[in-house]
């Protein structure tokens, strides 16, 4: 089992969106604790608030009320610069649609977070090569995203998320645009990263079987509320 | 993000939408070009005017008269000046050497103008002779000379004014190389001793005066060196009117009797030494005029120059430049709207990319800087292209003007001129305008919510 040290602590978090006259409560008074080194799957149908919760924890969005503590720091209290730094140094992100920048080579895409973090050039190329090796894309580093398959693109996106050596990896429907075999490969890669790097992984998905196979714990969301939590015995650490 | 990375990303983004960004940059270039062309015209015309005026010999000269109140050129009616009466300084050889020793003084020469009888082939013609200083060699009046300028500052040669030459011969051109004879009145200084010996009768005069002058008729043979259309020193009150020109040194050696000799005599202040009615001081550069003028005033003489006229001319050109610049800036304003449009479009197009950058940890400042860098790069490239284009337009204008002037039998002139400061400030201005234009788009891009930006398809 993963270590029991709490890494993220969400307390009574709510997030409201205005849609014309009506107010939609995407996340409703939700509390959740995530331990360091854990692989958590946020499960739910579309509109359940799982992506919103992920964005809040990733520092891309701010809660309307409540607090999200990461390593004791309340994200709600950070200014936009502080949040940017949190995203740059503590967080890696993978998206459903990969979001590699089309006019850059794979290598340049992976290098982007290092540019933003103002890492020196020699150190950058070393870490880019390392990250691409880890996801098995070393030979394809000069290719543009359009020249890569979906699975390769998602692996490239994963390399970009890992290159800054973050503490937490957020994955928003990482298999959503992939066929099931490729999706499984990606999840295997995530699991491997969790085990070898001891990284905390929080993944949003609506595919229960995949979550059950790879995650340590499943949190089920519905209408912005946490309705169920299941600890898996079949997880990676089993 | 570091500056170099920012630059690389900006260039990459600009290359991505190459057509749109090129068109926008071209818009800036056209704006800058119109600004540069307009201003280069202003600068060029100003340079042309000042070079012509400098050549006229009016703006690099200081005119000096004695404080005795002869009413030198431009001085107006003499004003009562108690100090001048107490200790006036004669404008004599001594003063002339003092002026010549002043810094930045090229030449000091008197106005020598006297009545003469010119004899040519048995006929006699009455006219005025004018001494011409060596520094007038470059004066525009001598540009279209028939024959040649004086072979040396002391050559016994004369240059005739065209109308006068026609009086001498129906084919004036054949006069060049011929000889004429001048008959003139020589002024001779007579010491008081001489007066007492030679003119015993008039002892009273001897008591009143310490010296005197006598006037003797003389002749001088001169070779005709050339014929000119206009008077090289016309334009200053009282200076024109010469029809036969001699090198001033030759003219001085003749010691011709002049109007102020009589004035000296009448005033009784003359020591027998010649004084000058006025001296003209030529300075190296019109810029030195004021300084030399001040130095001469300190020496105790009246000095004036036509720099005031030049100054008002400068005012006219400044206003001229201002309006040309204003019209040029208008084009650049339109171009800056193009930049705003292009960047706002780019934000819409690159919403998702901005979202990704933010998700990867880019600060609002990073995003703002990126858009600023893109706007600045368009301004820089547009500015450089624009200066080149503006220069070409100026060249074309000069070329067209030259053809026109040639048709009118006039010498070619350079009407457009792009000095380095104009090029540099036009580029700087283009970058500044582009950055201002980027202000709104960059701010908007920076404020973009990353979650919404990432959701954008």
Explain what this protein looks like in three dimensions:
The complex is a heterodimer of chains A (238) and B (457). Chain A is α/β, with parallel strands linked by helices and 238 residues long. Chain A has one domain: 3-Layer(aba) Sandwich (Rossmann fold). Helices cover 34% and strands 29% of the residues of chain A. Chain A has a six-stranded mixed beta sheet, sandwiched between helices. The longest helix of chain A has 18 residues, at 180-197. The relative contact order of chain A is 0.19. The mean pLDDT of chain A is 90. Chain B has three domains: 3-53 and 313-455, no CATH class; 60-110 and 279-305, Alpha-Beta Plaits; 112-275, no CATH class. Chain B is elongated and about 110 Å long. Chain B starts with a helix and ends with a helix. In chain B, α1 packs across α13. Chain B has a six-stranded mixed barrel with strand order 3-4-9-6-8-7. Helix content of chain B is 53%, strand content 18%. Chain B contains 15 helices and eleven strands. The interface between A and B is medium-sized, with 26 and 24 residues.
Give the % helix of chain B. 40-55%
Order of helices and strands of chain B: HHEHHEEEEEHEHHEEHHEHEHHHHH
Number of structural units classed as domains of chain A:
1
Main beta sheet of chain A: strand number and arrangement?
A: 6 strands, mixed
How are strands sequenced across the largest beta sheet of chain A?
6-7-8-3-9-10
So what's the overall shape of chain A?
globular
**Range of helix content of chain A:** 25-40%
Measure the end-to-end span of chain A: 7 Å
> Going across the major beta sheet of chain B, what is the strand order?
3-4-9-6-8-7
Tell me the greatest interface.
Answer: A-B, 26 and 24 residues
Distance between the termini of chain B: 27 Å
* Mean pLDDT, all residues of chain B: 79
Structural class of chain B: alpha+beta
Order of helices and strands of chain A: EEEHEEHEHHHEHEHEE
Number of H/I helices of chain B = 15
How many strands in all of chain B?
11
